[in-house]
Amino acid sequence: MSISPREIGSDLVSIRRTTHSPGITLVVAGAMIGVLTGAPWIFPASFVTVLMNFFILVSMATMWNLMAGYAGMVSIGQQAFVGLGGYATLYFALKGMSPYVAIPFSALTCALIAIPVTYLLFRLRGGYFSIATWVVADTAGIIIGTIALFGGGTGRPVPGFTNFSPTQITNFAYLSCWFVALVVIAGTYLLLRSRLGLVLSSVRDNEISARSSGVKVTSARRTVFIIAAAGCGAAGAVLAIAQPYVQVSNEFNIQWAAEMLFVSMIGGLGTVEGPIIGCVIFFALQQSLQSYGAWYLIIFGSLAVTIAIWQPRGLWGAFRDKFHIELLPVGYWTRSKKQ
Amino acid sequence: MSLLQLEGVSKKFGQVVVGEQITFQLEEARAIGIVGPNGAGKTSLFGIISGDIRPDAGTIHFEGNDLLKLNSAQRARAGIGRTYQVPRPFEHMTVFENALVAAQQGARLRSQHSYDLAYDSLERTGLSEFANQPAGSLTLLHRKRLELSRALATSPRVLLLDEIAGGLTDLEVNELTAIIRQLQSDGIAIVWIEHVVRALLNTVDRLICLAAGKIVADGDPQEVLSSAAVRELYLGGKVVGESVQ
What we know:
The structure holds 2 protein chains of 2 kinds.
Chain A: E1 13-16, H1 22-37, H2 39-42, H3 45-71, H4 79-94, H5 99-121, H6 126-145, E2 156-157, H7 166-193, H8 195-205, H9 207-212, H10 217-242, E3 245-246, H11 248-251, H12 254-267, H13 273-289, H14 295-310, H15 314-323, E4 333-336
Antiparallel strand pairs in A: 1-4, 2-3
Chain B: E1 4-13, E2 16-26, E3 31-35, H1 42-50, E4 57-62, E5 65-66, H2 72-78, E6 80-82, H3 95-105, H4 111-124, H5 140-152, E7 158-162, H6 170-185, E8 189-193, H7 197-201, E9 206-211, E10 214-219, H8 221-225, H9 228-235, E11 239-240, E12 243-244
Parallel strand pairs in B: 3-8, 3-9, 6-7, 7-8
Antiparallel strand pairs in B: 1-2, 1-4, 4-5, 9-10, 11-12
Helix pairs in contact in B: 3-4, 3-5, 4-5
């Protein structure tokens, strides 16, 4: 390492990592975690089902946003890892493992599969990269659909629930979805507060400058791609547990990528809170507009176009820029110690 | 041993020659200015040294090590800092975070050491009061200073400055040259591409003039500027005695 010829004084500056007292965030987060963990015993079953789907999408969208919003990799093929995660859970369950225990192993399987995939995809840039991710997802779906053990194209139910009552199955499925979402959000937040988080933001803003600042761009991107594959794999695993049935046309459906993109974009790309806010809006609209048939898709599309044109930083991004409030701050605020 | 040594470096893009047998050495804490008309290959030369462009031929050694074996990130970590002609800030990050990336990745420092180096690099260029502002909100002068701060935060031994005074007022140019002279006296070797020749003359020990990828003059700044080859290049026509025809 080269040494700066000038002596740098120690403790020139003090750093804060929050814009407000972290106590408020911790109290609110603690209360929310308590309520959401007890949701199956607090809320009606229909609402618990909505929450379950909400957490699955939050997990997927948080991973998609990590890739696109922080590392500049716009994937339209993340359903590949959703599907592979679901089928990995099926495989482990068929081999006698509890589907709940299989969740981390399914995530790990997706991470391992993602490693060689990066060597193929990272040869491409921009739109070509995006299309290639879709090709990877479709290819994975086609290959899985030919395997007899997995029931071919029609799929098969996930075994391993015979010892549980229907209520227990629903409650455990909910808790699986919720804990995966919690781990994904907390993990993403901690990652973005780390040195890697700073690196990812620099790569997103200007890859060439990042390289000349000493950033190993490809290595950072590869790390994020693998983490996002693991996160989407875990989401696929809980999707398989929630159904509990896996089918290629459902698990590898491009609809997942469209929803990840939509909620991240309307919530706020490049913010931890964005995909969560986007999911809240998505599910609120879906629940209130689903009786309007095709109109609800038209309203969704119009909303996405409107936000893309007038609020390209998303609703949370615009709110944050205006009021300088971050619920989950990842930045650095300085104060000179000379003053 | 020279700090930076280029030997026979050549590069072509199709039929366009941006470097032809470029050879020069840079000693520690010295400053070289590079002038030349547009398209002479000045910025491409920086790209070759910093690792953005791979040369077709030639060798580059830094502190005796083969630089061509390293990619641009590794060169930054080895001690080659550079700025870009058109500033390339990390727009959605704060000014401090811009410098912090370089301190943590380029200089490979952690925690308080990285914060101190990043903040010191902002203080050196007069940007510390903007530390918490988004880099995208900076003016051109401040963006150019941020380029310099970020390069400094990599803890460089050699600093490549690409038209850092371009587009600035006379007063701003004076402020910038004072900063660069201070960096040189701190021991950082400098290679400076600049069209604002007055800024160069106040700073560099040696001047190189490039044209069509070739070095056409190299030596004392005043002698290079008054050489027939350089005057012909800038004023056109042939130089006969002291007049241009």
